[in-house]
Amino acid sequence: MAGSAPLIAFVIVIVVVVLLGAVIALSSRLKKVGPNQVLVISGRGERTIDPQTGQKQKRQYRIVTGGSAFIWPVFERVDLLSLELITIEVRTEEVYTVKGTPVTVDGVAQMKIGSDDVSIATAAERFLSKSQQEIHDVAHETLAGHLRAMLGMLTVEEIYRERDKFAQQVQETSGPDMANMGLVIDSFVIKNIQDDQGYLDALGRPRTAEVKRDATIGEAEAARDATVRSAV
Questions:
Q1: CB-based burial label for 30 (10 Å; 0-12, 13-18, 19+)
Q2: Which of 12, 23, 166, 208 is deepest in the core (most CB within 10 A)?
Q3: pTM for the whole thing?
Q4: What H or E segment, with its residue span, contains residue 205?
């Protein structure tokens, strides 16, 4: 009996080491996800409900937003999608408006992968193997194309005087194409509009003259009132 004690102790140590190794190995397969990230776990897949038809369907991957998930070794792999905002600066060089006036427009968009399941699944199918820069480039070309198309449908006056409305139209028309990639546009603004023909300067001259005229009239009236008060 005394001779078996070391053997029992050795077996206990081996069991503890094996169990500890198993715990460490399993814990390493537990992946956590931040609030602005999505885990896309492929391999075993999952069953979901099609939001359009209501029918059950088999998807070759599962999506985890927030919290954590266990990744089965050998059977599954995990990829990460970012839900952080992507800033896209768009510049269209000398696009002709509906009346043939070339203008250059600078705009800035804030967009991201949508946080709903449909948008995440759509983005996963298109961008899972792509970097943030590649997603940026695809979104940029899509937005720039819609911006150029919209410029060709408007006059310089409409673009210049109603730039907020123009930016909203660009955002609305590009929205469906972005949604088809799982992207949503949070905002789009026009930073600058310019042309090399002097057309925009000509549009601004009447307003500039009006402001100067009003200022001159205001100064004259102020001087007159001051003269009347001093006379009294």
A1: exposed
A2: 166
A3: 0.68
A4: helix 199-231
List the structure tokens of 77: 């792999």
Both structure tokens of 190: 């026009």
Taking the alpha carbons at both ends of the chain, their separation in whole angstroms is 126
* Residues 6+ positions from 180 with CB-CB distance below 8 Å: 122
**Six token digits for residue 171:** 């955002």
Q: How many helices (H) and strands (E) does the chain have?
A: 6, 8
pLDDT for 212 equals: 45
Strands of the chain, DSSP E: 30-32, 37-49, 56-65, 68-70, 77-82, 86-96, 102-113, 183-194
Q: Report the C-alpha gap between 155 and 160 in whole angstroms.
A: 9
Distance (Å, whole) CA 154 – CA 172: 16
Structure tokens at 135: 């997603």
Residue from 86, 84, 91, 42 nearest 64 by CA: 42
Residues of the chain with pLDDT under 50: 207-209, 211-212
Q: Can you give the pLDDT at residue 208?
A: 42
pLDDT digits (tens, 9 = 90+) for 155-169: 888 888 888 999 999
